[in-house]
Amino acid sequence: MSSLPNNVDLIIPTRRGMPALIKLLTEASDPKWSGHTFCFVFDSYAEQVAEELRKWLNDHRDMLLPKVKACFAPANFAGNLNALRQIGLTQGENPFVYFQDDDDPLPQGLDVRLRMMQGDSYDAIFGVTETRTARGQMIEHFPSLDSNGQPLYDLVQGLRLFPTYAHPCAALYRRSVFDTTPIDDGISYTICGVGGFLARFMANGARITTLSDIIRIGCQSSDNMSIPILDQQARLLLAEDISLWQRYIESPEVRNFQEEIRQDLIHGDIITFRDITARVEAKLEEDMFLGVS
């Protein structure tokens, strides 16, 4: 395999204003980020914030910062994260991609993944997500880890069962995979669009692996969808998202498994993403017991 540049496009839809962007770029003022590109995607109405970013970058030219690109999304794309990320992809040209949230710390472990992807043909290399409160207190790791910090179950098998078993953004992707599996399929999902992407990604035979390190740190805030308890409206919206991506699932067993989750969301028997994870792990445990690969 020919050598590729070790550069990453971080695709960052942003809607939280300059404080979030300043915090993110200040964290990126480090030599290890200088070769990468931060691709910000603004909603169409965010001209003022974009102008503030341009001015801030001009005023801080003495800082060692990554390359920054920015663009606006059409008005009809507001709130459609898959569409925003697809636009962000068009702004960059590096061979590797990471999907960054504007209110989360920067990812860890990209250098290890870059070396691995230089030497092998992985489409993506996943890792563990750590969820923290806004004050920085650790809530959980997912997927579940054992006492040695290793995943309890096969992450790839878990993702095939349900695409939120690992966070779909907790991975370094090879850019070329988006030529065959665009992150936006033209459907406006409501809660879990990136889960819809990962369902298609897995169905298209993606070659993925996982490391046991924490790559993504997700910070809960009052305006994101990482709420611990899904109220009735959120459950119904997630159930609708599942029905939209089920068209891409070829395995009858997986479709039936996801349909059970969908129905239990509707009826209130599942009220958290952690409940879904528990269902996935129970299924993985059952398959291990029965010797099903």
Description:
- This protein is an alpha/beta fold and 293 residues long.
- It has a domain at 1-102.
- The chain has helices at 18-27, 47-59, 81-91, 110-119, 155-161, 177-180, 193-203, 232-245, 252-267, 273-290; strands at 8-14, 37-42, 67-72, 96-99, 124-132, 138-142, 171-174, 208-219.
- Strands 1, 2, 3, 4, 5, 6, 7 and 8 form an 8-stranded mixed β-sheet that branches.
- Helix 1 links the parallel strand 1 and strand 2 (37-42).
- It is globular and about 60 Å long.
- The two termini are 30 Å apart.
- The mean pLDDT is 90.
Largest sheet: 8 strands, mixed
Q: List low-confidence stretches.
A: none
What is the succession of H and E elements?
A: EHEHEHEHEEHEHHEHHH
Structural classification: alpha/beta
Kindly report the average pLDDT value. 90
Radius of gyration, in angstroms, nearest whole number? 19 Å
- First and last CA, distance: 30 Å
Shape: globular
Strand content bin: 15-25%
User: Which range best describes the helical content: under 10%, 10-25%, 25-40%, 40-55%, 55-70% or over 70%?
Assistant: 25-40%
Short description:
With 293 residues, the protein is of the alpha/beta class. Helix content is 39%, strand content 18%.
Blueprint of the fold:
Blueprint: E1 8-14, H1 18-27, E2 37-42, H2 47-59, E3 67-72, H3 81-91, E4 96-99, H4 110-119, E5 124-132, E6 138-142, H5 155-161, E7 171-174, H6 177-180, H7 193-203, E8 208-219, H8 232-245, H9 252-267, H10 273-290
Parallel strand pairs: 1-2, 1-4, 2-3, 5-8
Antiparallel strand pairs: 4-7, 5-6, 5-7
List keywords for this structure.
alpha/beta, 39% helix, eight-stranded mixed beta sheet, 18% strand, single chain
